[in-house]
Amino acid sequence: MIIQIEPQSDVPIYTQLTNQIIEGIARGYMHPGDSLPSVRAFAADLGVNMHTVNKSYHELEKKGIIRIIPKSGAVINSPVEISNNSERLLEEFKPMIAEALVLGLDKEQIQELVTSLIQDIKGKP
Amino acid sequence: MIIQIEPQSDVPIYTQLTNQIIEGIARGYMHPGDSLPSVRAFAADLGVNMHTVNKSYHELEKKGIIRIIPKSGAVINSPVEISNNSERLLEEFKPMIAEALVLGLDKEQIQELVTSLIQDIKGKP
DNA sequence: AAAATTGTTATATTGAAAATAGAACAGAAT
DNA sequence: ATTCTGTTCTATTTTCAATATAACAATTTT
């Protein structure tokens, strides 16, 4: 799985990494039960610092997407063992929905946008 | 319209302000053509610095939601005079959709989430 | 059993961003 | 004419992002 980091971006490196790992799982490049690379190996691979990868892993753990086993590694959780995050998801989605509405999109157009994104992600290639 | 700033939050004050203004417009508390308060008055009202409000206004202008008329004020744009932002919206939505998928939500559940948010916002009270 | 690898923790430094503060300017509104 | 507007400038403080080492203890590998 290919990760592309843009050091110049205004979005922090650890967030870029978090998002791309999530997208990689969503696309099926990685599966529940799989281990993520060690923070050191991954950092060396990406050319970033170990702590930057570590921060990303802990962000993923906070979201419930992986579990970090001390002195061992990071493992991708299966959806069934993830606690209910609908509350947090709602709060994360709200600003975007509001923005789309203000920009003039109606309900159907927003649903189309969501649908096309889901198909883009799930229709792997 | 009531704005609530949480200084302790990890999301910057100017972003909190931007999001709440957007939500306020989406909810119909403010309308296209309306003027936003002056940066000074708003800042005094919120108990924050003038430049923080100014930064929020420029963020809103970048999104196309308001226009800033030099030496005059900030005015809410109508949707029709907003250029096409679908490209940026797609990029903003993607990480959230991917996260929702990884957390185990299927297409229908995500659509439901979006629908409930839209109804919450548009069904004013 | 010994060596290597793991995540963790701690400290330190650098650079950028966030937020505040005060001041001054020129155009607009009253 | 006075006030108010957004703009611009400089400056400071604080926080965050990122890097850099180093050391520790437990797990894995050899």
UniProtKB/TrEMBL annotation, chains A, B:
SUPFAM superfamilies given in the database record: Winged helix' DNA-binding domain (SSF46785)
Domain HTH gntR-type residues, every copy: 11-79
Native source species: Cytobacillus citreus
PANTHER family (alphabetical): GNTR-FAMILY TRANSCRIPTIONAL REGULATOR, HTH-TYPE TRANSCRIPTIONAL REPRESSOR YTRA
TM region positions: none
Keywords for the protein's UniProt record, in alphabetical order: DNA-binding, Transcription, Transcription regulation
Protein name per UniProt: GntR family transcriptional regulator
CDD domains assigned: WHTH_GntR
Keyword DNA-binding: yes
